[in-house]
Structure to design on (49 residues):
């Protein structure tokens, strides 16, 4: 999959995994396999708006 921005890549990974289901921050962190939890928080915050 070609991603044009890291934010869109994270969004795409979460969408593919959870679709319209609710999920917790810990689940997103595990799914994205990020080393920096702040990046996950930023991604989730951006998606909520």
């Amino acid at each position: 999959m070609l991603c044009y921005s890291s934010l869109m890549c994270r969004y795409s990974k979460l969408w593919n995994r959870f679709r319209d289901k609710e999920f917790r921050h810990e689940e997103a962190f595990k799914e994205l396999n990020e080393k920096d939890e702040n990046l996950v928080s930023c991604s989730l915050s951006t998606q909520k708006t």
Notes: The chain has one domain: 6-48. The two ends are 25 Å apart (CA to CA).
